[in-house]
Design brief:
- This protein is α+β, with helices and mostly antiparallel strands.
- The longest helix has 24 residues.
- It is globular.
Length: 246
């Protein structure tokens, strides 16, 4: 078994899986880790929807923009920001929930989803399984909401594929550590050069693994951040009962 630190520092997003199912006991341990993860003010505002049905996984793959590894991996878990549970709890004592109208609740809930997702990925990898987190379910959130029968005051924030790896992925280089770790205050000096160096490193990485179409990091991130790339998120959030302090 890998050491604790190796599990985290050797992370790779796998996109090639075998047909072998995930052991039920292993899946239970993975889910237990997310279940016990911390949540803001003990809100427990995270729920998981586990999808093993092949037809549904294929549908999720299409919702996410055509990602075949979703259909191929044995298990897909959708992590849901869930304020439906707290609304039911407050109804029981004749209290009205209004917090979902604040952007803070969305930020807090998404943070708690991220903590749970990290727990899932770490434990899955400790079980010898491969994972790839999926944000693409937000491409068409309304379709995910319908597929999973999500009630009001819930939202599918992210997902993760879990399965046995077929062809292992190569670990991508990261931006230099000084762009990530800042002592006492945010350090802007040298950032442009660090990014230039990383752009060159990424282009070389793609060449090394046989990808002739590999982009620099600047080009890659521009492909997403030069536009609002998931424009249906806010309308779907509002339809689910969430607000943004307006």
């Amino acid at each position: 078994m890998q050491s604790f630190i190796d599990i985290f520092t050797s992370h790779k997003s796998e996109r090639s899986f075998t047909d072998q199912p995930v052991d039920d006991a292993a899946l239970d341990r993975i889910i237990e880790a997310a279940y016990r993860a911390p949540t803001s003010v003990n809100s427990q505002q995270v729920s998981l929807v586990v999808t093993r049905d092949a037809a549904k996984r294929a549908e999720i793959a299409q919702i996410a923009g055509g990602q075949p590894w979703i259909a191929k991996g044995a298990v897909f878990i959708t992590l849901v920001l869930d304020m439906h549970k707290s609304r039911v709890a407050m109804d029981a004592i004749d209290q009205q929930q209004v917090a979902q109208q604040s952007i803070e609740s969305i930020v807090s809930g998404a943070t708690d989803v991220g903590i749970a997702l990290g727990s899932i990925m770490a434990v899955a990898r400790s079980e010898g399984l491969g994972i790839v987190p999926i944000g693409g379910i937000r491409r068409d959130p309304q379709a995910m909401i319908a597929l999973l029968d999500l009630p009001e005051y819930t939202f599918p924030v992210a997902g993760v594929v879990i399965g046995h790896v077929d062809q292992p992925a190569a670990q991508k280089p990261r931006l230099p550590m000084p762009t990530f770790r800042h002592e006492e205050r945010y350090q802007q000096a040298g950032l442009a050069q660090h990014i230039a160096d990383y752009n060159a490193e990424m282009v070389q990485h793609w060449k090394t693994i046989g990808r002739s179409d590999g982009e620099s990091w600047s080009e890659s991130v521009s492909g997403y951040y030069s536009k609002i790339y998931f424009p249906d998120v806010l309308p779907a959030l509002k339809k689910q009962g969430f607000g943004n302090d307006k």
